[in-house]
Amino acid sequence: MLSRTCLLAIFLSVLPVLSYAQSQDNSRVQELFVKSGMQEQLKALPSLVQSAFNQSVEKDEEAKKLPKTLVSAMSAAATEAFSPTRLRVTMLAELPKKLTAQDIKEVLKWLDSPLGKKCTHLEEASSTPEVDADMQKYATGLQASPPTSERLQVLREFDAAVKATEAAVDMAINTQVALAMAIIATFPKERQVPIENVLREVEKNRPAMEAEVRSQVLISHLYTYRTLTDAEIKLYTDFAKSPAGSKYNAAAKESFDKAVIEGTVKWGELIGRAIKESKNKSEA
Q1: Is 161 among the domain residues?
Q2: Please, which residues have CB within 8 angstroms of residue 214's CB and are 6 or more apart in sequence?
Q3: How far apart are CA 26 and CA 5, in angstroms?
Q4: pLDDT in tens, 6-27
Q5: Is the residue at 2 inside a domain?
Q6: Which of 79, 109, 123, 127 is 20 to 30 A from 43, alpha carbon to alpha carbon?
Q7: Model's pTM, two decimal places?
């Protein structure tokens, strides 16, 4: 264990970095948040979590025993807990801690380029729930008209550069933990388990989950970037591999993860309140 003196020394050593991060131009961070497409993609999160919760309830025997009014309240609480407006505040506060002013300048330069704008537009367009049916239809069509080996290789390199599969697996795990904690919150206190235990159990499925998610991400990329040439995707990959691009992708992922965790905690609080209200009504 570190001594108090060591901890104080570490804290004092990072103060200049924290002060610099806090002094960055907030308008540039907001510009990055909007132009990168993060703002639009964040809007889809509440409905995605809510949909996953509703599907989970249909499969979970314990959840099926819950009063329908309570399940509805739990589902509705997800919308509030993962409110894009509130999560946006968390992400905007985190991004400048991880990116320098020069990093942001270089990322914005890419996002303002014709290809950068084109990529962001395609990503925003494919992040809405409405495209799910079209994407499934597209995936089915790939069996009759599969992509070339060159196209697959280009997209696999892109996936590795932006760490899309890694981010998707983390998001899937965070969502599973959130859903599990939502169900567990309805149990009697003696049957409830800490979030660390749930996370440990879910993490055991990471290898199998990664294999499945990787294939799903590939289909998603084939669909999202279907109008881009291989050369354009390679340019996007080059940006993602650059120092600024690499830092940006890591910062966006870490900021998003923190926002989702905060949303999970908030969801638990709202569910606890809904359970209490449900019990009061049943006892009245």
Answers
A1: yes
A2: 159, 165
A3: 34
A4: 333 323 333 333 333 344 458 8
A5: no
A6: 109
A7: 0.75
Q: What are the distances in angstroms from CA 74 to CA 59, 78, 196, 281?
A: 16, 7, 22, 16
Residue 13 lies in a domain: no
- Domain residues for the domain of 206 are 26-283
Question: What token pair was written down for 204?
Answer: 């055991």
Please state the rounded mean pLDDT for residues 75-102.
91
Question: Nearest Cα to 122, choosing from 201, 271, 228, 199?
Answer: 228
Token reading at 233 = 């995707």
- Other CB atoms within a 10 A radius of the CB of residue 15 amount to 9
What contacts 73, CB < 8 A, 6 or more positions away? 271, 274, 277, 278
Segment 77-82 mean pLDDT? 90
Rounded to whole angstroms, the Cα distance separating 7 from 16 reads: 16
Which tokens hold the place of 203?
Answer: 């993490």
Q: What total of structural domains would you count in the chain?
A: 1
